[in-house]
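Hi there,

I know you've been waiting on this one. I reran it after we fixed the sequence typo, so this is the corrected version. Both the input and the resulting structure follow.
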Amino acid sequence: MRQVDDYVSIDNDRLSANLSSLQNAQSISPDVAMEPKILLGSSFAIKVAGKDITLTKFAAMYPGGATEPNKDIVATLEDLSVASATIGSGGSNSMTFAVTADSYEAITSAYKQARAGRQMLTIEAKIATDSLVTGQFYFKSASGTTEGKWGDILTFQTEVTFLSTDEPSIQLIGGGNDSSNAIGLITLNNIRASNNFDVSLTTENSSDSAKVVTSILANNTSS
């Protein structure tokens, strides 16, 4: 396992998260299951042009250390990059998450209907303070002689909605001949935050108590 800041970090006032959450949560193989992930429960919400989208729950996602699936997961966070207003115009803000095939169809259908005859529309992704499933990072003991424990490397202390008026990247991946087993991969580009929000990040691989809380300012650049 790499260092915490290889997965989530604050660097030059930019919040970044990059994980293989979907892959790591679909397996109970020890080598894969021990890898970190960010799983989003049912309070995670999507709107397309103001319309609430019903997100279907995954049939089997395995949170950290679990041998029984959690069936309240509607999405997995794969990538997030959002800059605070303090850095001006540097970089691109984006968010990538995976959803079920049914959720993919619902998002795609709503987008196509809303897009008809319109040049611009807004997609919203809301992360509540309880959206992230807890205990998805395995902290090794500092001594190496005792068993580690599962904890959090990232939590949202404030509810926030990320908004995008750019055309999203929406693709259906995997599944073979059975599209019901496929996964929808959604990327929202040039996202903006609806409000200032605080995030808590863990800074050490061996301690989930070594946390730093950082504020991300809402009027961040969208380009």
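Quick highlight: Residues 4-216 form one domain.

Best,
R. S.
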